[in-house]
Design brief:
Helices cover 39% and strands 19% of the residues. The protein is of the alpha/beta class. The protein has one domain: Rossmann fold (3-Layer(aba) Sandwich). The strands form three sheets. The chain has a seven-stranded parallel sheet, with helices on both faces. A two-stranded parallel sheet has the order 7-10. α3 runs parallel beside α4. The N and C termini lie far apart (60 Å).
Length: 254
């Protein structure tokens, strides 16, 4: 009789709502033990309770990805409880008000960069270290980018700059991780319908200044894409994947 392998361990940041929650649910369905990180404890614990009712394993660890000590505590918990990490989905992110650059205050700029860039760096750094020293060595890092990593919307300089930075970080880790069996991917999402993006169904500013309603895509398709990448053997990688509403103005933007 073959020995049953332990469930793989996945970590999702920003897991309390939206894309993070959908991905966490999908990974739980795939049999992963899922560590749920986010700033709000209540939605994380609700997800843990729901998973437990279905016979699945999850652990809530309230975390502020902007804070190095908080991220270190998160990964210390992962290592202490599970001893390893197989997949991380770096999803936590924020945006800034859509205003001309000269009307954007420094606090909003720093909040976006601290969350979307430094937060991803801190989690990648800790995940890389754990995956490098664990046995068997290796793992998979998946970063939530955006189509804004390639083409901006009007008045989104902070968010666009942050996602361009994530793209560079992803490519660097994909290179640096080869030696240690660490694969790194980025998924660029366009118009996934979540609690935060529902406002877009009422219209979004276009490059010509008009406000237009854009098509949206079910967040389930994003979760399924992350699940596909997570399920690949470490000998294969999807470096970059775009999941978007078919008719949204991405191609041809500008």
């Amino acid at each position: 009789m073959s020995k049953q392998l332990p469930a793989k361990v996945a970590l999702v940041t920003g897991a309390g709502s939206g894309i993070g929650r959908a991905v966490a649910l999908g990974l739980l369905e795939d049999g992963y033990t899922v560590v749920l990180a986010g700033r709000r404890a209540e939605p994380l614990q609700a997800l843990v309770d729901s998973a437990r009712e279905q016979g699945r394993k999850a652990l809530a660890v309230p975390t502020d990805v902007r804070d190095a000590a908080s991220v270190d505590a998160l990964f210390a918990t992962v290592e202490e409880v599970y001893g390893r990490l197989d997949v991380i989905f770096n999803n936590a992110g924020v945006n800034a008000p859509a205003v001309p650059m000269d009307e954007l205050d420094v606090e909003h700029w720093l909040n976006v960069l601290n969350t979307n860039v430094t937060g991803v760096y801190l989690c990648c750094r800790a995940a890389f270290g754990l995956m490098r020293r664990q046995q068997p060595q290796g793992g998979r890092i998946i970063n939530n980018g955006s189509i804004s990593a390639h083409v901006p919307r009007p008045f989104t300089a902070p968010y666009t700059a942050s996602k361009h930075a994530v793209l560079g970080l992803t490519k660097s880790l994909a290179l640096d991780g080869r030696e240690f069996g660490i694969a790194c991917s980025q998924i660029d999402i366009g118009n996934a319908l979540t609690e935060l993006s529902v406002r877009m169904t009422k219209g979004v500013r276009q490059a010509n200044g008009e406000i237009a309603v854009e098509p949206m895509v079910d967040v389930k398709h994003v979760a399924d894409a992350v699940r596909y990448i997570a399920g690949l053997p470490l000998s294969a990688n999807v470096l970059n994947m775009t999941v978007m509403a078919t008719n949204m103005p991405f191609v041809g933007r500008g």
